[in-house]
Amino acid sequence: MSWVTWRQHRLEGAWSLAIGAALAAAVIFVAYQLHAASCGGQANSYCFSNELGGTIAQGIVRLNLYQYGLVVLPALAGAFIGCPLVAREVENGTHRLAWTQGVTRLRWLAVKLVLVFVPLLAVAAVAGALEVVLINQLGTTPNHWAFFDQQAPVVVAATLFALALGLAAGAVIGKSVPAMAVTLVAFVVVRVGLAEIARPMYIAPLSYKSVDLNTQTGAVYPSAWWLDDPSYYDNAGHCLGTVTFNGYRGQAAYFVQHFQPGDRFWAFQSIESAILTILAAALIGFTIYWVTRRLS
User: Fold this and answer.
1) Which of 7, 8, 172, 218 is 20 to 30 A from 39 via CA?
2) Residues 95, 101, 105, 106, CA torsion sign
3) Do both 115 and 181 map to the same domain?
4) Does residue 43 share a domain with residue 93?
5) How many domains does the chain have?
6) Are residues 75 and 217 in the same domain?
7) CA–CA separation, 18 and 123 (whole Å)
8) Cβ–Cβ under 8 Å, residues 255 and 234
9) Do 222 and 166 share a domain, yes or no?
10) pTM here?
11) Cβ–Cβ < 8 Å for 119, 17
C-alpha cells in the first residue's frame, strides 16, 4: 500500500520538496544578507549592502516570493495535492481495486494521509521557522504582526487545514477539478474571515490615549499591531472623527487608538493555529466517515 501511494503521488512530492527547498534557500539567503549587511541599498524597508549578494537579496525581496509563497502555497497544496488524494481515485475507480485486495478503507486513507501530509507539514514548519529568523533580523524591535501568516506555527496549521479541506472536498465531490475550485474558494474565505474579523478580537485590544496630537503611535510601540486609525475627541469627550487631526485643529483635545502589543504575538499565533488545527481535524474526521460509510 505504501509503495502504491508513493507511485501515485511521487511527482507532487518532488515538486513540493523542490519548491519548499527553493523557498527556504531564499529566506536563508535574505536573512544572511540582512545580518551581514552594511546598509548600501534598501528594498521594501530592508537594508542590504551594495555587493553582489546584497543586490541579489534586494531582487528577491522586491519579488516578495518568499513572503507571498508562505501564504499562497498552503492553498495550492490543498488544491493540487489534497484534492486528488481521494477524488482522483474515485474518478478512475481505482479505490475499489484497493479495497478488494485486503486493504480496509480506513487503512487505505490513513496511509495516504501519513505519507503525503507529514512531509508537506515538515516543509511548512521549516519554511515558517526560517521566516521567523528572517524577521528577527529586521532591527532590534521587529514587527512580527506585519508577517503574521508567514510564520510558524500558523503556516503549518494553514497547510494542514488546506490539505484537509482539499481531502474532504475531493471525497465528497469525487472529481478533482471542481474539488480544487471549491478548496481554493473555501480556503480564501476562511483565512480572510479569520484575519479580518476574528483575529483582532482573540484578546481584547488595549487603548492608547494621548493629548499630543502629533504623536506617531508606530514610534511609541514599534512592535505593536495598530487596529484602527486615531479617533479624535474634544474636551467634552465627543468623537470628532478619524481623519487627520489637522481638520480639527483647535477642537481636538486628545486621540485614542486601539492596538495589540507585541508581547501578545505568539499567543495570537497559538490561538489561530489551534482554530485551523481543529477545523482540519474536523474535516479529516468527516472524510474518514465519508470514505468508510458513504463512498461506494
Assistant:
1) 218
2) negative
3) yes
4) yes
5) 2
6) no
7) 10
8) no
9) no
10) 0.85
11) yes
Residue 227 identity: L
Same domain membership, residue 190 and residue 252: no
The verdict on 226 and 166 lying in the same domain is no
**Does residue 43 sit in the same domain as residue 185?**
yes
Any idea which residue has 529568523 for its cell? 133
Domain that holds residue 278: 2-201+266-294
Angle between helices 65-77 and 2-36 (to 10 degrees): 160
Residues 78 and 162 in one domain: yes
Report the alpha-carbon distance of residue 192 to residue 269 in Å, rounded. Answer: 15
pLDDT tens sequence for the chain (296 residues): 554 555 566 666 677 677 777 777 887 888 777 766 555 444 445 677 777 777 777 777 766 665 677 888 899 999 999 998 888 888 876 666 565 666 788 888 888 888 889 888 988 998 888 888 888 877 667 789 988 998 999 999 999 999 999 999 999 998 999 999 999 999 999 999 999 999 999 999 999 999 888 888 888 898 999 999 888 888 888 888 776 655 555 678 888 999 999 999 999 999 999 999 999 999 999 999 998 887 76
285 Cα distance to chain centroid? 23
